[in-house]
Amino acid sequence: MNAIGSLWLLFFLSGALINGYCSNVNSRPDMVNVGAIFTFDSTIGRVAKVAIQEAMKDVNSDPNVLRGTKLNVIMSNSNCSGFVGMVEALRFMETDIVAIIGPQSSVVAHIVSHVANELHVPLLSFAATDPTLSSLQFPYFLRTTHSDLYQMTAIAEIIGYYGWKEVIAIYVDDDYGRNGVAALNDKLAERRCKISFKGGIHPGSVDRGDIMDLLVKVAMIQSRIIVLHVNPDVGYNFFPVAQYLGMMGNGFVWIATDWLASVLDSAVRLPSEIMNTMQGVLVLRQHTPDSERRKSFFSRWNKINGGSLGLHAYGLYAYDSVWLVAHAIDAFFNQGGVISFSNDSRLLSAEGSNLHLEAMSIFDDGDLLLRNILWSNFVGLTGPFKFNPDRSLFQPAYDIINVIGTGYRQIGYWSNYSGLSTKLPEILYTMPPNRSTSSQSLYPVIWPDGTLSIPRGWVFPNNGKQLRVGVPRRVSFREFVSQERGTDNFQGFCIDVFMAAVNLLPYAVPYIFIPFGNGTENPSYSELVNMITTGNFDAAVGDIAIVTNRTRIVDFTQPYASSGLVVVAPFEKLHTGAWAFLRPLSRQMWIVTGCFFLFVGIVVWILEHRINDDFRGSPKKQIITILWFSLSTLFFSHRENTASNLGRMVLLIWLFVVLIVNSSYTASLTSILTVQQLASPIKGIESLKKGDEPIGYQVGSFAEHYLSEELGISKSRLKPLGSPEEYASALKLGPNKGGVVAIVDERPYMELFLSSQCSFRVVGQEFTKNGWGFAFPRDSPLAIDMSTAILELSENGDLQRIHDKWLKQSSCILENAELESDQLHLQSFVGLFLICGIACFIALFIYFLQIMRKLARYSPTESSSTSHQGSTLRSGRLRKFLSLMDEKKEPSHGGSKRRKIEKSLSENDRDKESRNSSNDGQREVRANVDARRSSSLPLNL
C-alpha cells in the first residue's frame, strides 16, 4: 500500500512539473522586440548593421534559444546625434522594447543612458568606449566591448617600454575624445610620463585646413610621439596632411587607437596613396581569439558581402551582443519573467501638450532581465563572453600592429593580465601573471622613417624658441662662472663644460643665457633651481651642487665636477724639540703598551717558574728577571729561554705585536723628524660642532642650510663671507677679533682659495659627497642626453683640459696637504693587544688547570680536632697550591733518552747473565779436577 501511494505521488509531481513547464513555454510571447541605435552610414555602423541582422537570423534559427519566441531587432539610425538618439530611444518605448543594443557613439550613449535608467531598459553598447560611462551613474548601461581605460593603459605601457617621457595627444573634442585622453594622462602619470600638448578637433566635419593648422602647432612641440584618438571617418585624413608637412619621418612616432584598426579591417583594400601615408604607424586593435566558429563566420561574411566589406572587432561585438540579449531573455522566461509595462505618473503630459509622454512606459521586470544579462556566460565570436564584478568584459586584451606596405604586421599583444608580450593572451592566461620589466617584449617596429632604430621621441623644434638657461652672476670665484662686463656673455669653467656638452649632442640646441642675481653678491642657488619649477628658466647652468632638496624638484645631469664640504682653518708649524721621540705614540698608546710589557713578563714568569732555572732564584732576582725579560723583547734581545709550550706560544704572539708596534713607531718618528709638521686646534667638523666659535661660509652656498639643519649648529655662529679676500681676512683675525675659527665650503672653491693662500689648510676629512651638475625640469629628456655628453667629455679628456684651463693650481697648492695627526692611536692596535691578551689568559687558564689537577690528588692527614678541620683543610690546600707553584720540577726529557736508558739497562742485564754463566762453568771444571785428584786419575787438560 505504501509503495502504491509513493508511485501515485511521484506521478502527480511529474505531471505538475510537466504542466508547469508547458505553461511556462506557452506563456512566452511569439515575439520579443529589441531596439538597436547606431549610425548606419559609418565605418562601425555599416559592419554592425550586417552583423546584427545575421545574429538575429542565427538566434531565430537555433531551437535551443528562445524556444518558440522570435527575436525582433528594430534598428534606428542616430546619425551620431545625441538628440536624435534620445528621440529614437523614446520612440522605442512605444513599441514594448525590452533592451536596446547600441549606441556606437559615446556621446549618444551618455544621453540615451538617462532614458534607459528611467524606463528600466538595459542598454548594451558594443562601441561606446568612453571610460566615464560608469555603472554607478548609469546602472542600466552595459558595455559589451572594452573600455578605453584599458586601451590607454596599453598605450602608456608602450610609451614606457620604449623609454619616452612626453607625448602629444590629438583627439576629437567630445566625451569620447576628452575622457579617453584624460585616462591616458592618468596612466602616463603613473609611469612618470606626461602629455606635453593636447590638440582637439571639432567632433563634426573637419576639412584639410583645420587639420593642417593643428599639425603645424604640433610640429612646434619638442615631443615627437603623437597619439591619435579620433573618429574613424575623419582620422585617416590626418596622415596625408602629416606627410605633406614632413611629419611622417625624422623621428616621428604615430600611435593610433583602435579606430584605425576598424578602418583597416572594414576596408578590404584602401587606396595605395592612403596606405603610403600611414607607413610605420602603430595601431591598437581589440583582441579576439581565433576559433573555428570565428573562421566559419568570416567565410560566411565574405559570401554575404561579396568581399566588398570587411569585418572588424566592433562588428564581432555587435554580433555577440545580440546573442547576449537572446540568452538573457531565455533565462528571463525560464525564471517566470513576464514582459509587461506600466505607465509612470511622472511622464504624464500636461494638458494641451502634444508630446504624448504617456505613451512611454516602464519595463516592469527590467531588473530581472538586467541581472540575467550580467550573469550570462557563453562563448561567442569574440571568445568567452562574461562580465567582471565591475561590469567590464572578461580578460581585456589588444593586438599591436604596425602598418607596413599595403597591409600590416603583428608586433605583439597587450593584456591586462601580463602587459606587453609577443605571446598570445590565451597562452599567457594559462601561466602565472608576470608584469616585470624583463618579461615585457615586442617584435621590432618599422618606424615612419623606414628604420628599425627606436626614435628618441623628441627634438628641439625649429620654431625660433630658445632654451632659457639661468646662469648665476657670481662676484667671487669667477673662474667657475662669470658674466663678461658690458655684455650678455658668460665665461668660466662651468660655461665651457656646458657648451662642450651641447656641441656633442646629435641635434642642435638653441639656447640663451639669462643672468640670475643682482651682481653685488652671490645669488642663492636654491632660488635659481626653484626658478626652473616655476617656468622662468628651462635649465640652470653653473656651479650648482646636487643636493637632496634640489633633486626632489628638478633633474640633474651626470656630475661634471666632484664636490663636498670641507673645513679650512689656520695652522702653525711644529718643531721637533728634545722630546720629539715621544710624539709617534699617543698617551693612551704609551700607557697600554707599557702595561702590556709588564703583563706579558709576569705571564711568562708564571708559566716558566717551575721548570726554568732562568726564572728561579731570590725574589729580588725574579723581579729583575721579569722586568728585564719584558723590556728586552722590545729589541728581541732577551737571553732567557722558554721551556714550556705555553710560554713559547705567549712569547711568539707578543713578539709579533712588538714587531708591528716597533715598525709603526719607526715610520712615524721618521716622518716627524724629516717632514715639516703642521698643527691646528681644529681637527675637523666634529671639533667645530663641539665649540662655540663663529664659522664662515660662502654667500649663496648650501653650506648654511647643511650646517644649521643637518648638523644642528646654531645660525648665530654662522658668518656669511662673499669673497676669497674675506675668507683670508676672517681667518687671520680669528674668533677673538671678529673673525672666524674656520670656514666650511665646497672643495673646488677651497682648492682655488688655498692655491694662493699658503697659511691655511684643509683639516679633517670631507664630510659630504656630492657633485656639480646642470639642472633641468623633471623628466626632461635633455638631461639624459647631456649626461651622456658629459660622460663622453670625461672619457676623451676634454673635461680635464677645461679644468686645467680655468683652475690651474699654483705651486702653493702642492704644499696644501690636509692637516692630520702623525700620532699612532690606540684604536689602530686594539686588535693586536686583544689577541695577545686572550692568548695570555688562555695560557694561564691551562696552566692553573694543570696545577689544580695535581692539587686534587693531595689529601691532607686527618686532624684530631673536628672544630678546626675545615680551616685546616683550606689552609692546607692553599699551602699546597703555593708550594706546587713554587716547587722545582725537573724537565721531562724525550722518549729517545728513555729508550737509551732502557737499552743500557738491558745490556747490563745481558753482561751480568754472561758473567754468571762463565762462573758456573769455572766452578764445574774445578769440581771435575778435584774428583780426579781424589780418585788418583790423571788429569786430561
UniProtKB/TrEMBL annotation:
Residues covered by region (Disordered): 887-941
BP GO terms, sorted: cellular response to oxygen-containing compound; response to wounding; signal transduction
Disulfide bonds: 758-812
Composition bias, Basic and acidic residues: 902-933
Ranges that cross the membrane: 589-607, 649-673, 829-849
Compartments where found: Membrane
GO MF term list: ligand-gated monoatomic ion channel activity
N-terminal signal peptide: 1-18
Assigned keywords, A-Z: Disulfide bond, Glycoprotein, Ion channel, Ion transport, Ligand-gated ion channel, Membrane, Receptor, Signal, Transmembrane, Transmembrane helix, Transport
Main location: membrane
Record bears the keyword Glycoprotein: yes
InterPro entries: ANF_lig-bd_rcpt (IPR001828), GABAb_receptor_plant_PBP1 (IPR044440), Glu/Gly-bd (IPR019594), Ionotropic_Glu_rcpt (IPR015683), Iontro_rcpt_C (IPR001320), Iontropic_Glu_rcpt_pln (IPR017103), Peripla_BP_I (IPR028082)
One GO cellular component term: membrane
Gene3D superfamilies: 1.10.287.70, 3.40.50.2300, Periplasmic binding protein-like II
Pfam name, any one: ANF_receptor
Ranges where the Ionotropic glutamate receptor C-terminal domain occurs: 468-809
Family: Belongs to the glutamate-gated ion channel (TC 1.A.10.1) family.
Role played: Glutamate-gated receptor that probably acts as non-selective cation channel.
UniProt-recorded name of the protein: Glutamate receptor
